[in-house]
Please model this.
Amino acid sequence: MNDIVQLFGNNSPQNISTSVQLLLVLTVLSLAPSILILMTCFTRIVIVLSFVRTSLGTQQMPPNQVLMGLALFMTFFIMNPVFTEVNQKALTPLMDNKISIDEAYTNAEKPFKVFMSKHTRQKDLELFLSYAKKEKPKSVQDIPLSTLVPAYAISEIKTAFQIGFMIFIPFLVIDMIVASVLMSMGMMMLPPVMISLPFKILLFVMVDGWYLVVKSLLQSF
Model:
């Protein structure tokens, strides 16, 4: 019991530094899902992939686990330069006790701000700036994360829906053609989805749909 009290009661600088680092790591891990979803390209990718599955009408194929896994790995691939810069300029110096926590936070948010600002619409950013009654920032680094993150999030959702709409059009045309043919043949009781589904899958496979979708997502960043 005394050993435990001495362990937690030791106020040496080394132990305090280790405790602060542990607290920082736990904080980052607890916020990791929110950071991953709202501050990276994950939102756009997962929405577009969901649109692909919905437009095909294949219900749960591919499964959610496959889509989420693909979205995660694509996110790590696209965000690799940002994560590398954060590790080199913030995490590694902090763990080596070369910079303070405040400096590490400042160094870590810079690459994220640069990335998010490139894909944030000015209209969305001005919405949150005006609501918060903040002056127009002189540079990207002057934009607070509390303003930039929601602006970036709604910009990503809009972009994802635009891409999803373009994906939906050819499959919608196939559904309309199949429905028209069935009605002209008097087969109104036969669900058009049952007939159009094989044609949509065939079209998607023939044009190498997954390659085109992933290529479009990569080029959009």
User: Anything to note?
Assistant: Confidence is low (pLDDT under 50) at residues 1-10, 12-16. The first helix runs from residue 2 to 9. Residues 45 and 74 are 8 Å apart (CA to CA).
